[in-house]
Structures are given as structure tokens and as C-alpha cells.
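FW: tagging you since you asked about this chain on Friday. Here's the raw sequence from the shared folder, copied in full. Didn't touch anything.
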Amino acid sequence: MQTITLGISVKASKTSISIPERDIEVEATDYLEVEVKPGDLNVDIQPGEAKALRLLVIKSSVYSDLEFTVNDGANDKSKAVQLDGPQIFSGGAMALFDVQQPKRLTFKNKSPDKDKTAKVEIFVGRDATP
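HL: got it, structure written out here
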């Protein structure tokens, strides 16, 4: 068992909200760095059901012209999500993708500039046993 500590702080000019650090217990973590050139790129993130995925973090060097879908590697896939900033999904947030067995992320770099590569970092915390 591994422990991931997650805390978030958001500040605006006159307001702020802070989510205190909390521990997320997981059996496995994965960290991936991929380069998404213009076109599509499939990245496998886990082998199990949505409830096994406890944390998904996606960060990119480029946030324009980049989107992703969550899919099961076959027919079941989510709607496209514009990657317009860092993304954090924890707890029941994976249900938003409406994919029973989210195994893969498919990134699409729609940049017309053939040399515009996005360097994407993906962190996954999951349960490894059913």
C-alpha cells in the first residue's frame, strides 16, 4: 500500500479556497511522460474498472490545441476534454467520463504547426487488485 498526499489551494484577488491535505491510499502508482506530436497518441493508464482509479493528474507543456478522451481500449469512450490547464481527477470524479473500464487516454494534438509537440505528464494512483 502506498500513500499519496493531495492538497490544493486556489487564490483570486479577493477570495481563496483551500482543500487541506488528505491522504489517498493506493496499491500502485504510475508516472508517465509522453510527447504528443500533431495527431493522436494512445497512452495506457490502468488495467481495471473505474472504481480502481483513485487519482489521475494530467499536466502539459502546451495547453492550446490539445484534447483527450478516456476509453476502454475498444468501443467505450468519453467525450473529448479540452486540455486547457492542468487536470486533477480524484475520488468519484472518474465517473464524469462515463467509461466502465478506463484503461487508456487518447490525446489529440490539433496544432497546424507540425513541430508543436506537447510534453504531457500523467500521474495515476490506483488499486491493483480487485
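FW: The chain has a mean pLDDT of 91.
HL: agreed, and The longest strand covers residues 16-26.
FW: great, closing this out.
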